[in-house]
Amino acid sequence: MKRSMMSALLCCGFVCGAAAQPANQNPADWPTQTVKIVVPYAAGGSSDTLGRLMAQHLQAAFKQSFVVENRGGGGGTIGSKQVAMTPPNGYNLVISGIGSHVIAPVETRTIDPLADFTHIAMLGGPPAVLVVHPSVPATNLKEFITYAQQVKGGLSWGSSGQGSHAHLIGELFARQAKIEQTHIGYKGGNPAMADLMGGQIPAAVVTYTSASGAIKSGKVKALAITASKRLPASPDIPTFQEQGFPDLVATTWFSLSGPPGMAPELVNRINAEVRKGLETEAMQKQFLLEGIEAPSWDAATFQRYMRSELDRWVPLVKMVAASAPKS
Question: Is the CB of residue 30 less than 8 Å from the CB of residue 268?
Fold first, then answer.
C-alpha cells in the first residue's frame, strides 16, 4: 500500500514538474531554467564528449544550467524517444546522430527521425578508417582489393557492430570493390581493434577515434579513411575518395535536436550559439584528436542534410539486414 502511494506521488511529481516548464515562452527570453541534454548512449563515447563540451559552452553563453543525462538503449532510440515526448520549449534536447536517428529506427521503429524531432544543429563526427593487421601484404586500397579477392572463402573483417555505421561503410566498400567477405560484428570499436591487433582478424572498419592510437603506434596499418580530405593529425592516411571510391565520404556524425514543434526563432537562436561553440578552443582540440569534421550549418541546411542521409543509408540498412545470417 505504501509502495503504491509512493509511486503515485513520484508520478504526480514528474507530471507537475513537466507542467511547470514554460509552454509559450518568448524565444528571446529562453532559457529561464535548467536545460537538460540527453545523450542516448552510455558515458564515454564521442556523443557523450561532444554533448558535454557543448553543454559547457551553452551554459556559459546563456548563463543558465545545462545538464547532461545519459539514457542508453535501443541503439540510441530510447533516450531520443523520451525527449520527443516532451514540450517543444527548448528545455529538453537530445544528442542525435546517424546511429540513433538514421540507422537504429529502421529496426526498432520506435521513432520517426523527421516527424518526431526538431533538428537544430550539426556537431560533427569522426570518419571511419579501414585498418589491417601488419601481416596483410597491402599498403593501399588497390593492393588490398587484390589480396582480398584471393582469400578463399572470403575475407573476414570486423566492425563496431552489426548494423553500425562502420559496418555499412565496410559493406558499401566490399560491394563496390567486388570483394567476397565475411563480416564479424563486435560490441564496439575497441573489441574489434583488440582482435585485429591480436591477429584474430585481418581487417576492420572502425571510427578513426577507435583506431588512431594503434595506427600511430604502428600496431595496425591504415589504408583509407572516409574523411573528405586527409586529416591534419594523420596526413599519411589517404582517403577512399582519392583512391577511386568517391561514394565513401562519410562521418559518424552527431547533432543536437529537440522535440517536434519548436519555434523557428528558438531553433535559430540555439543553432547560432552552437555554431559559436564549434569554434571554441575546447571543441577544436577534440575535433583534432578525433579527426572530426564539423560544418557550420544553419538549421535549414542541417535539416536538408538529415533528409539526405536517410535517403542515402536507409536502403543499405534494409539490404544488409535482409542478408544477415538468421540466428
Answer: no
C-alpha cell at 37: 541534454
Are 208 and 126 a contacting pair, CB within 8 Å?
Answer: yes
What pLDDT digit, counting tens, does each position of 114-147 carry? Answer: 999 999 999 999 999 999 999 999 999 999 999 9
> Which value, to the nearest 10 degrees, does the dihedral of the CA atoms of residues 220, 100, 301, 295 take?
-30
Q: What is the CATH code of the structural domain delimited by 32-125+252-319?
A: 3.40.190.150
Residue 26 banded pLDDT, cuts 50, 70, 90: confident
Asked if residues 71 and 84 have their Cβ atoms less than 8 Å apart, the reply is no
pLDDT score of 44 more than 50: yes
User: Chain centroid to CA 225: how far?
Assistant: 16
Distance in angstroms (rounded) separating the CA atoms of residues 239 and 248:
9
Which option is the CATH number for 128-250: 3.40.50.1580, 3.40.225.10, 3.40.190.150, 3.40.190.10? 3.40.190.10
Helix (H) or strand (E) holding 258: strand 254-258
pTM of the model: 0.89
Cα separation of 306 and 297, whole Å? 12
Q: Where are the domains of the chain?
A: 32-125+252-319, 128-250
